[in-house]
Amino acid sequence: MASITIIGTGAMANAIGGVLAGGGHDVAHIAKGEVGTAPVTGDIVVLAVPYPALDGIASAYAEQLAGKVVVDITNPLNFETFDSLVVPAGSSAAAELQAKLPASHVLKAFNTTFAATLGAKRVGDLPTTVLVAGDDAAAKQALISAVTSSGLAAIDAGSLERAHELEAIGFLQLTLAVGEQLPWTGGLAVAR
Question: Which run of H or E residues covers position 69?
Answer without folding.
Answer: strand 69-72
